Amino acid sequence: MSSAAVEAARRVVSGLREACATPATRLADVAAALAGEMEAGLAVEGGSRVKMIVSYVDSLPDGGEEGSFYALDLGGTNFRVLRVRLAGKEARVAERVAREVPIPPRLMSGGDATSERLFGFVASALAEFVADEGHDADGERQRELGFTFSFPVRQTSIASGTLIRWTKAFSVDDAVGEDVVAALQTAMSKHNLHMRMSALINDTVGTLAAGSYYDDDVVAAVILGTGTNAAYVESADAIAKLEPSQLPKSSNIMVINTEWGGFDSPCLPTTEYDRALDKESLNPGEQTYEKLISGLYLGEIVRRVLLKISSRCSLLGDVGGGTELRTRFVLTTPDVSSMHHDETPDLTVVAKTLADRLNIRGTSLETRRMVVEICDIVATRSARLAAAGIVGILRKIGRGGPGDERRSVVAVDGGLFEHYAKFRRRMESTLEEMLGEEAAARVVVKLASDGSGLGAALVAAAHSQS
C-alpha cells in the first residue's frame, strides 16, 4: 500500500471529520433553532418546517387503567392487532395478545386497491381476532380501539383524521382526503364488529403513552430507528393556532407530534455526501434533520465516503472492478454498527462486512481501521444531533435548565437507540455535556418499546368513555 494512497484516503476522512464536527456551541445553536421552529409551528398552521401536529391526546395513561382494550397498528405491508388487559397500578399489563396479518399486495395498489376493500380486509381480520379471543373479559363493556396509522394525516380530533397521502408500498387513490377512522368504522360495522374508535395516533405519540404508563415523569418521546420523530407534552395555552373550541375541556395539556425530521437550519453540519444523497432522494430538500440522524441513511452516507476514497486511491480496490460501492443503500446501519463495534484484533467483522456487502476483499488492517473511523464520525454526528434535538424540546417546555429540580423522562423507541450501543452512549454523554452534570442527572432517557402497539391501546384506555 503506497503512502500516497494512504494520504489521499486520510484527506477524505479528515474532510469528513471537519464537516461533521458538532462542537458544543453548534449543538447549542441547533437546540435553540429547533425550539424556535417549534414555537413558530405552534403559532400558526404551516408556520414552520417542523409541523407541530396537534394530536388531540389531552390525557395520558397513569397506570390506574383497568379493562381490556384493543389496538390496530397499520403502517406497512403487515398490520398488527392486539388485545391488552390492564389491571391497575398493581399488575399493570396483565395480558397482551397480538397477531400479525399480511396485506395482499393487490389491496395496497393497483386496480383492486380501493378504500372499501383495504379497510374491509383490515376489519375482517380484526373481527376474526376478536372472535378467536372469545368472550370479552369485561362482559358487556363496549370494546374500545386505539388505531396507529403511520401515514400522513391531517388530524381534526382524537378519533378522526383525513389522509394526506400514502407512502411506502400503498397507493389507494380513493382514500386520499378521506377520514380513515370513518372508513374503518364503516368496514367494522359491515362485519358486525361493535367497537368504538377511541384514538387515532402515530407511533411517536404511542411511545409517549407507553412511557408515561410506567413513569409519571415522562415529558417527551423520541423515535430513533429507520426514521426519526418526537412528541412531547405541551401546555394547551401555548398552542396559539388552536381555536378556543379545540382546546381540551378537562386538562391543560396536549400531546404535540413535532414531525421534527423536517427541521432544517444553517447550523446543521451537512457534508457533500448529505447534499448528494438529498438531491438523489425521493424528497429532495425535505426531511433534512432525519437524513442526518436516522437509521435509513447512516449506512448510505458511509458508502458514499468509501466511494470517494476509492475514486482517489486503490485502498478499496477498483471501483469498476466488481465492487458494489456504486449500489445505493447496499450498506445498512446494522452493517455500520457491527463494524463500529468490531473489537477483534484484525477487525475481522469489518473485513467480512466489506466482502459480503461491497465485494471488497484483501483490505489492509490500516484500511479497515479507517473504515471504523468513518463509521464513528457518521454515527457520532447522528447521536450528538439527536441529543441536541432532545435538549431543544426540553428548553421549549422549560425543563432541564439550571435550578429545575424536576425529574424529566424522555421515552425512546427504535433500533438505532436500542441496538446501536455506541450511538446510545454518545447521545447520553452529549446530553450531559449540553445540560451539565447536575441537570443531566435529572434527565432520564429510557427505552419504551412498542409504542405503535401497546401505546395505541393505552391511549384508547386513557380516552375511554366506559
From TrEMBL:
It holds the Pfam family Hexokinase_1. Residues 16-213 form the Hexokinase N-terminal domain. Residues 220-461 form the Hexokinase C-terminal domain. It catalyses: D-fructose + ATP = D-fructose 6-phosphate + ADP + H(+); D-glucose + ATP = D-glucose 6-phosphate + ADP + H(+); a D-hexose + ATP = a D-hexose 6-phosphate + ADP + H(+). Coiled coil: none annotated. GO terms for molecular function: ATP binding; D-glucose binding; fructokinase activity; glucokinase activity. Its EC number is 2.7.1.-. Transmembrane segments: none annotated. GO terms for cellular component: cytosol; mitochondrion. This is Phosphotransferase. It comes from Oryza brachyantha.
